[in-house]
């Protein structure tokens, strides 16, 4: 049996400008490309989860590309540590390459796999790929992490000035190993095809992003987030294209890395308030009210439009994400963790760090949060950002009918209740 190197794809579902793959292809031995359907993750998902369909579609494309280079994609389903033990027995492996992931589950998984491989005298190399700067690369002068966005962003930009971004589009096509493997169907991994489709990203909006980004009825956002989440495009390629076009768009990409480093340095935020002084807030957590929010039946058209868009498409406009999140936490006094979990289940672009960071921002409990006394007025938000009600008419066509519910809570009363509850709950 010939020695092979293996590149383990996870959140980097592409062959071009993929750091781990580029590094592996430079080695003497032939390279095989692996993807593992991780049952630790799959077992938590609905059987028609649109993200699994999207991943499967991407893997099908990659397998086709690899077959044109006399190779193929090696796809396994199971618990990663067990799969790697089987691979060690099946192949003579020289090196394993993968791109680093910074989420708590991923770092623990990768450490276990690394130890197993090293115990079997296999060299393991991890690479920076899904970020411009890793969590330890943008730090304060004293070596501690930033917890406020603006100074982090300024340091990020300062570091970036010296960077020469290299985008590797060419592949060394004769360096792939011959793989005798077939891609399992969705049904074979226990899933079915979702009716929700992922849109291609569109950078033509970037030039006008500052003007259009807040208006949900306008085609003003890029649909990029899901592609960055699964690595169907590299962050280097995107930053190279947008860097001089829109500071606001670039800021959104820096926010992504800011929240990633927060999660890395403070993993407790997954289940806890970043600011412990908010732990005393007494959430109402009314289950029936939560269900009305989930189903887009609150009686506030902009909130309902957002929730219905999410439920139908797996997507929600960013401005509306802020409005719906604020409504849940402030108007209904429902724990941000409930909303965070619902978004995690529904969003195509769900990324633990950003989802957690943005929900804690909306609740006022996060590291760089909106002050607790900021309570979005949904009616005013419509006047500012959906004046013609085009977005609302699309998702809540019955909003002027008698069948449409009255607002489930009065804004003024809810705002006062939220302020009093927060004041009582916040520790000095």
From TrEMBL:
<feature type="binding site">
    <location>
        <position position="209"/>
    </location>
    <ligand>
        <name>FAD</name>
    </ligand>
</feature>
<feature type="binding site">
    <location>
        <position position="249"/>
    </location>
    <ligand>
        <name>FAD</name>
    </ligand>
</feature>
<dbReference type="Pfam" id="PF03441">
    <property type="entry name" value="FAD_binding_7"/>
</dbReference>
<keyword id="KW-0157">Chromophore</keyword>
<dbReference type="GO" id="GO:0009416">
    <property type="term" value="P:response to light stimulus"/>
</dbReference>
<dbReference type="InterPro" id="IPR006050">
    <property type="entry name" value="DNA_photolyase_N"/>
</dbReference>
<comment type="similarity">
    <text>Belongs to the DNA photolyase family.</text>
</comment>
<keyword id="KW-0274">FAD</keyword>
<dbReference type="InterPro" id="IPR036155">
    <property type="entry name" value="Crypto/Photolyase_N_sf"/>
</dbReference>
<dbReference type="InterPro" id="IPR005101">
    <property type="entry name" value="Cryptochr/Photolyase_FAD-bd"/>
</dbReference>
<feature type="site" description="Electron transfer via tryptophanyl radical">
    <location>
        <position position="283"/>
    </location>
</feature>
<keyword id="KW-0456">Lyase</keyword>
<feature type="binding site">
    <location>
        <begin position="252"/>
        <end position="259"/>
    </location>
    <ligand>
        <name>FAD</name>
    </ligand>
</feature>
<feature type="binding site">
    <location>
        <begin position="221"/>
        <end position="225"/>
    </location>
    <ligand>
        <name>FAD</name>
    </ligand>
</feature>
<keyword id="KW-0285">Flavoprotein</keyword>
<dbReference type="InterPro" id="IPR036134">
    <property type="entry name" value="Crypto/Photolyase_FAD-like_sf"/>
</dbReference>
<dbReference type="GO" id="GO:0003904">
    <property type="term" value="F:deoxyribodipyrimidine photo-lyase activity"/>
</dbReference>
<dbReference type="InterPro" id="IPR014729">
    <property type="entry name" value="Rossmann-like_a/b/a_fold"/>
</dbReference>
<dbReference type="InterPro" id="IPR018394">
    <property type="entry name" value="DNA_photolyase_1_CS_C"/>
</dbReference>
<dbReference type="GO" id="GO:0003677">
    <property type="term" value="F:DNA binding"/>
</dbReference>
<dbReference type="GO" id="GO:0006950">
    <property type="term" value="P:response to stress"/>
</dbReference>
<dbReference type="Pfam" id="PF00875">
    <property type="entry name" value="DNA_photolyase"/>
</dbReference>
<dbReference type="GO" id="GO:0006139">
    <property type="term" value="P:nucleobase-containing compound metabolic process"/>
</dbReference>
<feature type="site" description="Electron transfer via tryptophanyl radical">
    <location>
        <position position="336"/>
    </location>
</feature>
<feature type="site" description="Electron transfer via tryptophanyl radical">
    <location>
        <position position="359"/>
    </location>
</feature>
<dbReference type="InterPro" id="IPR002081">
    <property type="entry name" value="Cryptochrome/DNA_photolyase_1"/>
</dbReference>
<protein>
    <submittedName>
        <fullName>Deoxyribodipyrimidine photolyase</fullName>
    </submittedName>
</protein>
<feature type="domain" description="Photolyase/cryptochrome alpha/beta">
    <location>
        <begin position="3"/>
        <end position="132"/>
    </location>
</feature>
<dbReference type="GO" id="GO:0071949">
    <property type="term" value="F:FAD binding"/>
</dbReference>
């Amino acid at each position: 049996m010939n020695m092979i190197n293996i590149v383990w794809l996870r959140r980097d579902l592409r062959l071009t400008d993929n750091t781990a793959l580029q590094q592996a292809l430079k080695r003497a031995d032939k390279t095989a490309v692996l993807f593992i359907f991780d049952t630790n993750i799959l077992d938590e998902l609905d059987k028609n989860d649109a993200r699994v369909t999207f991943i499967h579609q991407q893997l099908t494309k990659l397998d086709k590309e690899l077959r044109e280079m006399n190779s193929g994609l090696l796809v396994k389903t199971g618990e990663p540590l067990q799969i790697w033990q089987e691979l060690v027995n099946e192949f003579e492996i020289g090196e394993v390459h993968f791109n680093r992931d910074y989420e708590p589950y991923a770092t623990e998984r990768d450490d276990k796999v690394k130890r197993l491989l090293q115990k079997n005298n296999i060299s393991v190399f991890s690479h920076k790929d899904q970020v411009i700067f890793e969590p330890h690369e943008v730090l304060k002068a004293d070596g501690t992490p930033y917890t406020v966005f603006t100074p982090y962003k300024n340091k990020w930009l300062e570091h970036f000035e010296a960077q020469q971004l290299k985008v590797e589009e060419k592949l060394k096509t004769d360096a792939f190993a011959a793989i005798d493997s077939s891609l399992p169907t969705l049904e074979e991994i226990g899933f079915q095809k979702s009716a929700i489709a992922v849109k291609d990203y569109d950078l033509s909006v970037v030039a006008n992003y500052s003007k259009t980004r807040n208006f949900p009825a306008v085609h003003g956002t890029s649909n990029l987030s899901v592609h960055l989440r699964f690595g169907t495009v590299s962050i280097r390629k995107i930053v190279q294209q947008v860097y001089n076009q829109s500071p606001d768009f670039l800021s959104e990409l820096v926010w992504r890395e800011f929240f990633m480093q927060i999660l890395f340095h403070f993993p407790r935020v997954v289940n806890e308030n970043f600011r412990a002084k908010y732990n005393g807030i007494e959430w109402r957590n009314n289950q029936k009210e939560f269900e009305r929010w989930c189903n887009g039946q609150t009686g506030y058209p902009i909130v309902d439009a957002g929730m219905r868009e999410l439920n139908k498409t797996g997507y929600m406009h960013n401005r509306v994400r802020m409005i719906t999140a604020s409504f849940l936490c402030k108007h209904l006094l429902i724990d941000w963790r409930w909303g965070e979990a619902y978004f995690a289940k529904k969003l195509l672009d769900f990324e633990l760090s950003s989802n957690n960071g943005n929900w804690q921002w909306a609740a006022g409990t996060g590291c760089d949060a909106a002050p607790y006394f900021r309570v979005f007025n949904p009616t005013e938000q419509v006047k500012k950002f959906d004046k013609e009600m085009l977005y609302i008419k699309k998702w809540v066509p019955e909003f002027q009918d008698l069948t449409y519910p009255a607002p489930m809570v009065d804004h003024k009363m809810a705002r006062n209740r939220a302020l009093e509850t927060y004041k009582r709950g916040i520790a000095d």
